[in-house]
Design goal:
It is a single chain. The protein has 26 helices and 12 strands. The longest helix has 21 residues, at about 440-460. The strands form 4 sheets. The chain has a 5-stranded parallel beta sheet with strand order 3-2-1-9-10. It has 5 domains: about 5-180, HUPs (Rossmann fold, 3-Layer(aba) Sandwich); about 200-260, SH3 type barrels, CATH 2.30.30; about 315-380, no CATH class; about 405-460; about 470-550, Arc Repressor Mutant, subunit A, CATH 1.10.10.350. Helices cover about 50% and strands about 10% of the residues.
Length: about 550
């Protein structure tokens, strides 16, 4: 799939390739001696990564990407980004190494965390209130569909990720703790308890420092995850002693799922036990990553290569918050835009704050379509910097959409098309042989455009009468259209007539002429290329529309 790309990938400027090169440097630095590293680097750079992997056993171990999921809530927009962005870096690394270096992406569910905040959007909330502070995989499922609330949310996560076609491995925190995967690192943490405390305590307030322990015991009596201080440590037995909720001194092993780690030491435990090489997180977690890195080193691990992305903002430039419910949900984006457009939006400038609200969807969709259209005509080196390459993991579809989303929106608006059959009546005449079967992306865009128009454009429509100058220009345009060949669908020819009418009428800047057309004819301030719109809408209908509005 990526054969022969490695020399080109070395020069690609897109951020996933920059990250992939940093990650590759880390792998060579940590796994090989200086001499081995030099030879492996030469082989990989010359397109012989398979030979490098065959030569050095240390390169046969998969490069591990990881992202986390909070199992106390349902998958959301952030969940998509958590998986989509490292997938882009993973694809870039595979291209950089001709797909010879094995990789894996772990989606890790923090389902052993105690349920602290009771969600408001679930049935039978009393069940969650009764089970508060228990690991979410021990909380009863309020939906009555799974063994636990954590299992319910994990199932939703898997359906969510599978629906987008992500390539990943799922790991459950509960399974890792109870199954012994973390035992060796947990015993190491017990032995190095004081060193961990030296890192953690300065990060806490005075009151919290007095009772803090990196171990959160799970009460054998109530099953709740307790914020209880560690009163005794027995490294020889691998146990800690704490006061249970009723004050009883209780001794439990740190292994086998009897305790879990506080979240920053937990992060470090996971990195160490799973040998994680790469993990992304929001810029609000920079300090947490720094602290977890220190704990990871104490535990004998190598902190992963980190990447910090900017947070999304709502239309008022407020941080998106699940508890506030501001900004866009996954369901809302997917009602108005394709998953590919969302992946494109996640790809764009991840270190810059971006607004995540309804009005970004049409622009993101058309920008994605534009990049997809240009991809096939680009030379290989430029393709690697094309967002379409990263959205589709190096395999963009051969064909995009012959009609932009904004043009589709205006077609819906002008034709008052409330269903796709009306739209396809226009589209099939404009694009010979086009149908929902031959143009599946166009068919999806039609659905999105109808939804977006009905929910956002139609309620905001505000037609206005033309000024004297505008009316004169539109009457001139009307005469020009009538002089064109009957049924003309030449978008360029039509656009030239629109330009000529505006110039002859003295519009300066000419953009004011197009704004007038949109406001008078379509009831909105912006629109697509007018010639393309008329070509699809139909010259005869455009003539009737101008006559009606002038």
């Amino acid at each position: 799939m990526f054969e022969g790309l490695s020399p080109l990938a070395r020069e690609a400027k897109a951020w996933p390739f920059e990250q992939a090169r940093l990650l590759l440097s880390r792998i060579l630095r940590l796994r090989l001696t200086d001499a081995e590293r030099d030879l492996a680097a030469v082989l990989i750079a010359s397109g012989k990564a398979a030979e490098a992997v065959a030569t050095f056993d240390a390169l046969k171990k998969p490069v591990t990407f990881q992202c986390g999921y909070g199992a106390s809530g349902l998958p959301h927009m952030g969940t998509f980004g958590e998986v989509a962005r490292p997938t882009m870096v993973r694809s870039a690394l595979r291209a950089l190494t001709d797909d010879a270096l094995p990789t894996r992406l772990i989606v890790f569910s923090d389902d052993m965390d105690g349920l602290r905040k009771i969600p408001t959007n679930v049935p039978n909330r009393h069940i969650l209130e009764e089970d508060h502070d228990k690991p979410v995989t021990s909380v009863r499922d309020p939906f009555g569909e799974h063994r636990s609330f954590g299992d319910h949310n994990n199932a939703r996560l898997l359906n969510f990720l599978d629906g987008f076609g992500f390539d990943y491995e799922f790991l459950s925190s509960t399974a890792c703790y109870k199954g012994g995967l973390f035992d060796e690192v947990l015993l190491r943490a017990l032995a190095r308890f004081d060193d961990i405390q030296k890192v953690m305590l300065p990060t806490l307030g005075e009151e919290r420092r007095a009772t803090y322990s990196p171990f959160l015991p799970i009460s054998p009596k109530s099953g709740r995850v307790l914020q209880a201080p560690t009163l005794e440590r027995h490294v020889d037995k691998g146990t800690i002693v704490f006061a249970d909720e009723d004050g009883t001194l209780t001794e439990v092993p740190v292994t086998g799922g009897h305790v879990k780690m506080q979240w920053r030491p937990d992060w470090a435990t996971r990195w160490t036990a799973l040998e994680v090489d790469y993990e992304m997180s929001g810029k609000d977690l920079i300090d947490s990553v720094r602290v977890s890195n220190q704990v990871c080193k104490i535990l004998g691990g190598a902190p992963p290569e980190a990447f910090h992305y900017e947070l999304f903002m709502d239309e008022n430039n407020q941080k998106i918050s699940k508890s506030k419910g501001n900004g866009l949900t996954m369901e809302e984006w997917l009602r108005y835009g394709a998953p590919e457009s969302l992946a494109y939006y996640m790809f764009q400038s991840p270190k810059s704050a971006k607004k995540l609200y309804f009005d970004v969807i049409p622009k993101a969709t058309d920008e994605y379509l534009s990049h997809l259209d240009s991809y096939q005509g680009q030379e290989e080196a430029k393709r690697l910097d094309n967002p379409a390459w990263h959205v589709h993991a190096g395999q963009p579809p051969q064909y995009g959409s012959p009609v932009s989303f904004s043009l589709m929106l205006n077609l819906v608006s002008a034709a008052n098309a409330s269903d796709k059959e009306i739209l396809w009546g226009f589209l099939s005449r404009y694009i010979p042989g086009a149908s929902p079967q031959t143009q599946p992306l166009l068919d999806r865009l039609a659905d999105y455009a109808i939804h977006y128009y009905e929910d956002f454009v139609k309620p905001a429509k505000a037609f206005r009468p033309p000024t004297d100058q505008e009316r004169a220009a539109m009457l001139d345009l009307l005469a020009r259209f009538k002089a064109l060949p009957l049924g003309c669908q030449d978008a360029e020819l039509i656009q030239n007539e629109v330009y000529a009418a505006g110039k002859d009428a003295g519009f300066e800047p000419l953009r004011a002429w197009f704004t007038a057309l949109y406001e008078v004819l379509l009831g909105q301030t912006t629109g697509p290329r007018f010639g393309s719109f008329v070509a699809i809408f139909g010259l005869d209908r455009a003539i009737a529309l101008i006559e009606d509005k002038t």
